[in-house]
Specification:
It is built from 12 helices and 14 strands. The chain starts with 7 loop residues before the first strand and ends with a strand.
Length: 347
Amino acid sequence: MNNFYEKVGFAVIGCGLISQFHIGAIQEIEDAFLAGVYDQNSETARKTAKEAGVHCYGSFEEALEDSRVDAVCICTPSYLHASMACTAVEAGKSVLVEKPLALKLEDCDRLIALAKEKGVQVGTVSQLRFSPAIGRVKKAMQDGILGRLTRADLYMKYYRPQEYYDRGGWRGTVEKDGGGALMNQGIHGVDLLRYLAGPVNSIYALSATRVHDIEVEDTLTAALSFQSGALGVIEASTGDWPGSPRRIELNGECGVIILEEDRIVKWEVEGEKGFSLYEENDRKIQSHQDPGKIDASGHVCQIRNFISALQGEAELLVDGQDGRRALEIILSAYRSAESGKAVVLEG
């Protein structure tokens, strides 16, 4: 690690919408500093660098050659995640990769193995895991307060206009986006569902493109079984106007917990008295309608955890294997929808 005020040095690669959350988080954290930014669009890169008051790299290679840089945030379009992350790891940099970690499981495996070989960290962005409500529900699930889990359901009925896909040219394509509503919008919910309910055994999915002029699905429904024996459904869409907040419902023999985005909206447990819901925060997450309307504090918490892992003070809460697990569920759903048969997962 560099010795620039004993802080962890970052480079942000890709200067689109999501990069602003990384830049803001890095500049807020006392143990981090932003060395510079890079984007294939030089005008966008210069504008972002000027606004952030940092260096604008002329190439990805220049960023990796900067001795001040300990870690790289990969905020590029999805199809570039795996290749750019591997290049950064080869250069000895730890990487924090926006979702999805890759578009293929073999690329996840290659990146994870390479990072182990080089002795660096690979993190996958799933900032919702760091919300107080998710932490509270995770502990409840670990404590088994619902008894035997019977159902674990995810509903992501989002809305995106056609212009969202037309802008940039890569969203909604098989080659560059890797999928539609489930891959791009649904992956955060898929990660949370597995995080809270445990590994998925099998999945059977139906998908369709109902509203948009795109190559991939804008509507998907899946039935799944968990290793615990629980059953569940996943519903993902970007064509359900005006859009609804992400909802996760966890039902067991002893109670029910329901989350909307990062808020607990229902908590009823047999034998529990005096429990009252509270507002974990006053944040207004409206990403079901606008991808830019997410809360920035999740990225701050995740990057703090990432820094602690680099300094050997904590384990990564969301590592490369976690990114792979979420991707496996999504790709299995796509295989099922294509084949018309249930798909059994590795675990």
